[in-house]
Description:
Blueprint: H1 3-11, H2 19-43, H3 48-73, H4 83-95, H5 100-113, E1 128-129, H6 130-135, H7 138-147, H8 150-163, H9 177-201, H10 203-227, H11 244-251, E2 254-256, H12 259-264, H13 271-276, H14 285-291, E3 300-302, H15 303-309, E4 312-316, E5 321-324, H16 325-331
Parallel strand pairs: 1-4, 2-3
Antiparallel strand pairs: 4-5
Helix pairs in contact: 2-3, 3-4, 3-5, 3-10, 4-9, 5-9, 8-10, 9-10
Amino acid sequence: MTGNTAAYEIAREFASPSYPRAIFQFGNTLLLYVVSVGLMFALLPVSYGYVLAVSLFAVVAHVRLFMIGHDCAHQSYLPRTGWQNKALGNFVGVLTNTPLGYWGSQHLLHHQTVGNLDRRGYGDVDTLTTEEFEARPFWGRVWYRIGRNPYVLMFIFAPIYFVIMQRYPFEQKRAPAKIWRSIIGTNIGMVIYYGCLIWIFGLESVLLVFAPIVLLSSAIATWLFYVQHQFDEAYWERQENWTYEEATLQGSSFYNLPRWLHWVTGNIGYHHIHHLNPKIPNYKLAECYASVPRLQNGKSISFWESFRLAKLALWDEANRRLVSFAEFDRSR
């Protein structure tokens, strides 16, 4: 048994969802979201500055709701792995503009292919090798540079992805019926949800309230899933050398955040553990990390360090490291 396999077996002890902990987390998150959004509507006639200030609490709740939906997609949030996780995930999906079945199918492929150079493009940000980038025509290189710009990625592509791209199966050319049901069901739920709010408060008020929530929460969610696979000595291998265990522990990082930020982000910072065993619910990731010393030796990135790592954009296959465009330009 390899060290990674041993770590997986130990981590599996924590893959047991709990009704009390799940209900408590979901309850306080939903309460924070409802109260924050309600207060934002109440403050609209007073000052939009106050609305934006309160929106930060709504954004926190929105991100946590998305992480709960993420666990439901893995069938890991509630003990009953069937209809309960699906029902809760679909409800959360309406609030977060994310169809559980569609998004979850892409995300599960990401878990199965992370770090595999021959199976890129499933639920992740496009990553080219230096040779592939150099071989692209001029405008192909320009578009890739734009797409890998962290500001463009977080504040333009991210909201477009959640608001528009999730309304239709763009990433699946021949989507099966269950994917269409997921998308159509979520879209109908969103029409009812936002339609009722527009009927009560008016279109302008709804846009003023939800625009900052969707913009910031989509940027934060994208950042969290993106930056934790972004570090100099990341894991990328061709199919013949790729292994799931090495990809999880060498290709995913521990985002070493303050405890309160782990709470805000639904513990997704323990990303290497999540990839090692996605059946561990988010509310047990911290104790798994504390209980298994082997898991504390993985790649750890700090909050401030992550901003530098976000600029890495190309995989240097010869030197086995991610490099920035600036490094690539200097080498050429």
